[in-house]
Structure formats: structure tokens, C-alpha cells
Predict the structure.
Amino acid sequence: MSGKTLTRADLADAVVRKVGLPRNESQELVELVLGEISSSLARGDSVKLSSFGSFGIREKGERMGRNPKTGDEVPITPRRVLVFRPSNIMKERINQGHARRSKAAE
């Protein structure tokens, strides 16, 4: 693994290189797209990006947990969590890259 994290700035740079928009417009475009995704998820809508995957919200009910330090039981409050399911195309891309690296190491 390379250990690099893709940032908003990296996404904006990619838009500058591949689309040719000015840097400030590229940054605005990235912010608009991420903002729309965030707003949709906050409303409880799912977001599907073709060839990438689906983001959704799952409701988790209240349950009992355990404090690992003390061993005491503690109630965990109900909450909504973000879930991501990669598309089959994304899974194949990830595994192809893994297969190439494995063969190169042999």
C-alpha cells in the first residue's frame, strides 16, 4: 500500500489537469459535489455513483456495550451510521491492482 490519502485538493488538481478548469472553479466544483452528497445523506437519501459504489445511512438501535478499561456495562445510544458498498466494478479494480502487486513480488 502506498499510504497516500486522497484529499479535496488532490481532487481539485485532477479536475484542473483533466478538464482544464481554473483552479478556483475546480475547487468550487469539488466542494459542490461533496456538499450535495453530504446533504443527500443527511436527509436520509442514498447516493449511488455508477462504477464506484453506494453510500447510505443505517439506523443502529440502542444496545449495551462494555467499557474495555473497567468492564462496566454502558448503554450505547441509538444513532445513524454511514455505510458504503463498493460496486462490483470497483471491487474488480481493487483486486486487479492487488493481483498485479502480488505477481510483481514473486
